[in-house]
Amino acid sequence: MTRGRFITFEGIDGAGKSTHLAWAQQLLQGMQIKHVVTREPGGTPLGEQLRELLLGSGQPIHSETEALMIFAARRQHLEEVIQPALQRGDWVLCDRFTDASFAYQGGGRGVPKGKLEALETWTHPHLQPDLTLFFDVSAEVGRERVARIKSPDRFEREGVAFFARVRDAYVDRMRAAPQRITRIDGDKSIAEIRTEVEERLSQLWKK
Most buried one in 16, 87, 159, 184, CB count within 10 A? Predict the structure, then answer.
């Protein structure tokens, strides 16, 4: 059986990745491609519990504790959802993956890159997404969009400087893996973005 495709959707808060992921799901349905839609942190009962602690906790969380919790949720996610789906031949659409850890915990929080690389190697040494769509907007645009949220989570409450560091880390990650990570200008019209997403997914389907 042919292994499924693993596609991740990345970007700072307010970039619109979740909206475009929902549209990509509809696109795959139209193409009659079996798929699973999931998210990080989360995706499993344990992961969702950790997500609540990470996003909703009123208690301070050390930056390295935060990183360890996210990778713990990721390991369970891989075991229960991602790897079984890929082995079945299904495509996996995932809202954030390890690139987000390098961006948020690395760029945003300042966790050393070497520690994140060690966790990445430990957690999924032989697996990387087949395609990562990086929806890119400026920190100012992202913060402006997030400001409209009535009940922001721990990350959404961060300021422009935090989001700027996160975006810079995403750009660094993209430059290190240009064959995997595709930048999509989040300031473009929805129609233009959808056309680009469709092109990328169609290219992956033809491989």
Answer: 184
User: Measured at the alpha carbon of residue 181, what is the angle toward residues 31 and 110, in degrees to the nearest 5?
Assistant: 135
Contact 69, 54 (CB under 8 A): yes
Answer whether 86's CB lies under 8 Å from 6's CB.
yes
For 109-167, the pLDDT digits (tens) are 999 999 999 999 999 999 999 999 999 999 999 989 888 877 888 898 899 999 999 99
Q: Is 198 exposed, middle or buried (0-12, 13-18, 19+ CB in 10 A)?
A: middle
**pTM (2 d.p.):** 0.95
Rounded alpha-carbon distances, angstroms, from residue 13 to 69, 74, 155: 20, 19, 8
Q: How many CA atoms lie within 13 A of 121 on its CB side?
A: 6
Query: Beta-carbon neighbour count of residue 141 at 10 Å?
Result: 17
* Distance, C-alpha 107 to centroid of its chain: 15
Judge residue 179's burial from the number of C-beta atoms within 10 Å of its C-beta, 0-12 exposed, 13-18 middle, 19 or more buried: exposed
